[in-house]
Design a protein that fits this description.
27% helix, 5-stranded parallel beta sheet, 498 residues, alpha/beta, 13 helices
Length: 498
């Protein structure tokens, strides 16, 4: 589809100009807007989001118990103290974001139910034109010299759901957590949750108090890490009426240090880390529980995400007999449940496919450079913030092993520094360009499977941009590698201005 291939003619489409256009009103976009307002109070900007309100992931996910498995002291912003328990529900996170919107007076510049269809860069005009579809189907345009992509990294419209034999004969309900029906009645029902990641670990304890029984059916195990709802240190500081800003900063440092300790241990001695994780699980599970069978993955610790379970609530549900775990593959669905490959039948009234999601490259928006379509799989990242040959565009992609927002804050600081340089030097365009030294640089996959092997990452490699084998054409570093360097790296290396 082109900018004029719409139900409305070109002259009928209204245009709005802003100095900076942010796509996405989740935690990345709201954070970017805060930094923009603070550092460039005179710049005009707008946020566009396809959903009906702020929050991104935390608005899409409405299944029971939806929560963050990252602590909110690091998942929260550096500039906004977190005042609740370390691990928060989706509703609590949305309320936190609402507070930022109110405090920064962002509501007038956020446009909900505005889905970006196409983004077109004009070299002659040195600006982006975005075609946007509103909830009523009407098309409008936003024009901006600088585009900031904060739309997240997965497909909101459709979760990943495999197909199994016999699904059509199952007489119960099949539900994907990403499309949770508001009227789903699971009280007294037998529920099977297919999957073993953070979503399954969240759903099961949240439902187990109401259902007859919940079975977690997993093809392969996941590492889980039980954590208390809050550090004793945090509780002590709050009782002493220490200012919220101080508590937030101290807790942020403490949680990061604990996370870094596990990451370093996994890198340096994966076998010892595996034993440590299994030993941390054992005391929370029934005597004789087959921990090695159900919670000992074949991959290395942190090759896939370690799922934190606050107060060991998943294990509590198992210990109390309200939930159970089956590690097996699916042979077929039946009228009344699922038959596993080993011949066990699991009775079910409801089957929940907590089987993950698919990556989305920049929200699936069609990008054009001077009327030529952009194939991002042919481009490489620049520091995990910009894309080769794409002018005046930045994006946010967070950490895999640490909280997403730690990097969102760092990226915002980098982009603001870039804008300040352009303003001071009178430049209007910045674009990453590979030089002669990179002529033979290999274009490597977006994610190295030796380091990260999560299904959603591996399934979507072909649609994502690439990375090189040297600075500044690589990404997916860790927070401890970037926190003291990203604010100081050269704004000239690999970048062309005019």
């Amino acid at each position: 589809m082109t900018l004029t291939d719409t139900k409305q003619t070109s002259k009928d489409i209204d245009s709005t100009y802003v100095d900076v256009l942010i796509v996405g009103a989740g935690i990345s976009g709201i954070g970017a807007a805060h930094h923009l307002r603070e550092r460039f109070p005179d710049k005009t900007f707008a946020l566009l989001d396809a959903l009906d309100g702020p929050g991104g992931t935390w608005r899409t996910h409405k299944y029971p118990g939806a929560r963050s498995d990252s602590d909110l002291f690091t998942f929260g912003y550096s500039f906004k103290p977190w005042r609740g328990a370390a691990f928060a529900t989706a509703e609590e996170i949305r309320n936190y974001l609402d507070e930022v919107i109110d405090e920064d007076q962002l509501a007038p510049v956020i446009h909900y139910q505005h889905r970006v269809i196409e983004a077109h860069w004009s070299s002659a005009d040195e600006q982006w034109t975005l075609e946007v579809e509103q909830s009523d189907g009407a098309r409008i345009r936003f024009v901006t010299p600088f585009l900031w992509m904060c739309q997240g990294y997965y497909e909101h419209d459709e979760g990943f759901s495999p197909t199994w034999p016999g699904m059509d004969q199952f007489t119960g309900q099949i539900v994907h957590p990403q499309h949770w029906p508001e009227d789903l009645d699971y009280a007294g029902k037998r529920v099977v949750v297919i999957g073993s990641g953070a979503t399954a670990a969240t759903l099961i304890p949240a439902m187990a108090n109401v259902t007859e029984h919940v079975t977690m059916l997993q093809r392969s195990p996941t590492f889980f890490l039980p954590r208390p709802a809050n550090l004793e240190l945090v509780e002590t500081l709050r009782k002493l009426d220490v200012p919220d800003e101080w508590v937030h900063d101290i807790a942020r440092r403490a949680y990061f240090a604990m996370g870094e300790e596990v990451i370093n241990a996994a890198n340096n001695d994966p076998d010892a880390t595996r034993k440590m994780l299994l030993d941390l699980m054992r005391p929370h599970l029934p005597e004789g529980f087959e921990v090695e069978k159900h919670f000992n993955p074949s991959y290395r610790p942190w090759q896939q995400r370690i799922a934190v379970i606050p107060e060991a609530d998943l294990f509590v549900a198992i210990s109390e007999g309200r939930a159970s775990v089956v590690t097996d593959t699916i042979a077929t669905f039946t009228e009344t449940g699922i038959m596993t490959s080993s011949g066990t039948h699991i009775d079910a009234d409801i089957v929940i496919t907590a089987t993950g999601f698919d990556l989305s490259c920049f929200g699936g928006i069609a990008f054009m450079l001077d009327d030529e379509p952009v194939d991002f799989s042919e481009q490489v990242t620049h520091r995990g913030i910009m894309i080769s040959n794409i002018p005046n565009m930045a994006y946010v992609f967070g950490y895999f092993r640490s909280s997403w927002t730690l990097r969102a804050d760092l990226v915002s600081e980098y982009v603001i520094r870039l804008m300040e340089k352009m303003q001071q030097e009178g430049n209007t365009v910045v674009v990453p360009r590979l030089g002669a030294a990179e002529a033979d640089m290999p274009k490597l996959p977006f994610m190295d499977p030796k380091n990260v092997s999560s299904g959603y990452m591996m399934r979507s490699q072909e649609k994502m941009f690439r990375q090189g084998d040297r600075e500044p054409w690589i990404h997916m570093k860790e927070f401890h590698e970037e926190r003291d360097t990203l604010s100081k790296v050269s704004l000239d290396e690999g970048l062309t201005y005019h």
